[in-house]
Design a protein that fits this description.
The protein is mostly beta strands. The chain has 2 helices and 15 strands. A hairpin with a 2-residue loop joins strand 11 and strand 12. The chain is globular and about 45 Å long.
């Protein structure tokens, strides 16, 4: 029976798209390898070891979770809604939620991860609201890695090695860069911030 980490879901939900024109981004992409991903085209969050028991990739629309939920367990039917049991850290059921499978292909998010050597940082502009999405209580300092003035900023946490994200720079106020969608992003100069 597949299991999904509630803390990973809580990390990912702020990055799920709400734009009507991007329906395949309206959920969290869960892979059999245990990696989950969420993106809205401006930010990306990937979390390893977040799910177990999947035999195929699936995009799940996940509602707000009941308090004290530590994990979700569910069966993955061929179609229709997915009833998930919300369990606490002892495995005791604390509620239930209905998940929905989102149809369609999820983008190749690994294709946008920068792989080049760090570039010297000149000036970079980002929407502060996007940075705020990565604020996670008790996650420790956030590490921002810069890879050039128009490249994605890599976000990671000192206390959570399995979580990483991207923030896209803006070219001018309110206009997100889309170079990363073409896989041309490069990676980082490292800065630790509290």
């Amino acid at each position: 029976m597949p299991t999904l980490s509630a803390s990973a879901v809580r990390f990912a939900l702020p990055h799920v798209s709400k734009e009507a024109s991007r329906p395949t981004l309206h959920g969290i992409h869960c892979e059999p390898s245990g990696v989950i991903s969420a993106t809205d085209g401006k930010t990306l969050l990937m979390h390893s070891n977040a799910c177990t028991g999947l035999t195929r990739p699936v995009i799940l629309s996940v509602p707000k979770l009941p308090a004290k939920t530590d994990s979700l367990t569910f069966d993955l039917p061929a179609s229709g809604p997915i009833m998930a049991r919300a369990l606490d850290h002892r495995g005791v059921e604390v509620g239930a939620v209905i998940l929905r499978e989102v149809e369609g292909p999820f983008p190749n998010v690994r294709g946008v991860l920068p792989s080049n050597d760090p570039a010297p940082l000149t000036t970079i502009s980002v929407d502060p609201a996007l940075v705020e999405r990565f604020a996670i209580k008790d996650a420790g300092p956030v590490v921002l890695e810069f890879f050039g003035d128009m490249s994605a900023i890599r976000v990671s946490y000192t206390r959570h090695e399995g979580i990483a994200g991207l923030i896209m720079p803006v070219r001018s106020p309110g206009t997100p860069s889309t170079d990363w969608m073409k896989g041309s992003a490069t990676w980082p100069v490292r800065h630790d911030v509290e």
